[in-house]
Amino acid sequence: MSDVVMAEIRKDYLYHLVLKGERADGRAFDEYREITLQTGTIRKADGSADVRLGKTRVLVGVKIQPGEPFADTPNKGVIITNAELVPLASPNFEPGPPNEVGIELARVVDRGVRESGAIDLPSLCIAPGEKVWIVFIDVHVLDDCGNLMDASSLGAIAALMTATVPAAQYGLGEDYPLPVRDVPVATTAVEFGDAIIFDPDTDEESVADTKLTVITTADGSVCGMQKSGPGFLSQDKIYRIVDIACERAKEIREKFLEV
User: Fold this and answer.
1) Is position 107 within any domain?
2) Could you tell me if residue 16 is inside a domain?
3) 34: which of 128, 168, 202, 239 lies 20 to 30 Å off by Cα?
């Protein structure tokens, strides 16, 4: 049986479940899968986090080292975010340069950290115009079972919150905690029919017309959004997603990030 036929059967099955107000795994439409978070999992990293969202698993490592600032921000530290999609994590991932999925994932994680002002970048200036601390955030997808955005976002901020600037290693004084000022959390929903479903798994993502990721700060402000897919969302649905996203993000902060 062809992949196209299987996709149509799967879409029809999920659609009829949605009409009955159900999901394949029994969750409510706005309910997340079980989340587990462990920090300090990579010994050689300056900060790290292992996130499991259902069967999705993401490992995030943070490395901090001195380097030159960008020309337009000579008095600020630098953030560089990368995402690696390990081929064993999904049959859709292939070896080689990052594809559009990996690029989008890295950009959304970076946007959440950068636009929220999560890191106090001015305090990472060592010598204006000459040397600053560069923060590398590396996202490694180990198992893709849906909703990589939220898992990666959570892993990134958890790794940053537990990261240490290795000043002593470079003869720049004593080590100190990375100055983190805010806690951005991403919340993703997909539209399927007339229903809005949060924390989609791979099947739900594959049949949804539209996906929207909302990134909020600790005070509930929206600092970033990313829309994927060919479909569109009405204004009312966007407002609804944002409202629920703020609630879910707050729950995640309180439970896993102690904010």
Assistant:
1) yes
2) no
3) 239
Tell me whether residue 170 is in a domain: yes
Assess if residue 21 is contained within a domain: no
pTM score above 0.70:
yes
Provide, for the chain, the percentages of residues in helix, strand and coil under a 3-state DSSP scheme, each rounded to the nearest 5: 35, 30, 35
From 109, 91, 118, select the one nearest 148 (Cα to Cα).
109
Nearest to 233 by CA among 207, 212, 205, 258: 212
The confidence score (pLDDT) of residue 18 equals 83
**Do 187 and 214 meet the contact criterion of CB atoms below 8 Å apart?**
yes
Residue 8 carries which side chain, given as an amino acid letter? E
pLDDT at 3 (0 to 100): 60
Residue-level length of the chain:
259
Total domains in the chain come to: 1
Helix residue spans in the chain (DSSP H): 3-19, 100-115, 148-161, 202-207, 235-252
Closest CA to 38 of 20, 22, 54, 59: 59
81-91 confidence digits (pLDDT tens): 999 998 888 88
Q: What is the pLDDT of residues 142-173, one digit of tens each?
A: 999 999 999 999 999 999 999 999 999 999 99
Residue pair 168/226 in contact (Cβ under 8 Å)? The answer is no
CA gap 147, 34 in Å, rounded: 13
Q: How far apart are CA 66 and CA 62, in angstroms?
A: 14
